[in-house]
């Protein structure tokens, strides 16, 4: 039986569970450190995040905060739990795309030839990653955001909903690109960037 434990009984967790179900997981269990959380979209919450080690299952972290996601995924891997890749059947990936453990690619997303996606990433609904991009570990490419060709995104960076990054640019690690921002120049200093063109605000 294909059995998956999901850490994070949230809205994001609902989407991850739906992808897992579409990939043939027959049993889905949630783990969450919040009090009083009994179920998530009809699936049972059976314990806290640390309790996953008492269950025979694969495990994935469905938490938006990249640093928390990284910490928990590293604990799963260190504890010997297999962390799968989840790809919605209605996502489109070129055959040569590589995807790291714990990454979730959602419905309508497109990842084009020559691109690499790191560990623990989120390629969200209808986002696109064009050819020869390199997405480092624990990056979130939000709903409807678009990366042109040969873009590099550093680890733990969040590309906000509807943001656009022009071709041949680099966005360094630990950045937040605001919703609807347009990145026209490489970003070499971590921080929060918003606007058209994107500019640093903090």
TrEMBL record:
<dbReference type="InterPro" id="IPR041561">
    <property type="entry name" value="PglD_N"/>
</dbReference>
<dbReference type="InterPro" id="IPR050179">
    <property type="entry name" value="Trans_hexapeptide_repeat"/>
</dbReference>
<dbReference type="Pfam" id="PF17836">
    <property type="entry name" value="PglD_N"/>
</dbReference>
<dbReference type="InterPro" id="IPR020019">
    <property type="entry name" value="AcTrfase_PglD-like"/>
</dbReference>
<feature type="domain" description="PglD N-terminal">
    <location>
        <begin position="4"/>
        <end position="76"/>
    </location>
</feature>
<protein>
    <submittedName>
        <fullName>Acetyltransferase</fullName>
    </submittedName>
</protein>
<dbReference type="InterPro" id="IPR011004">
    <property type="entry name" value="Trimer_LpxA-like_sf"/>
</dbReference>
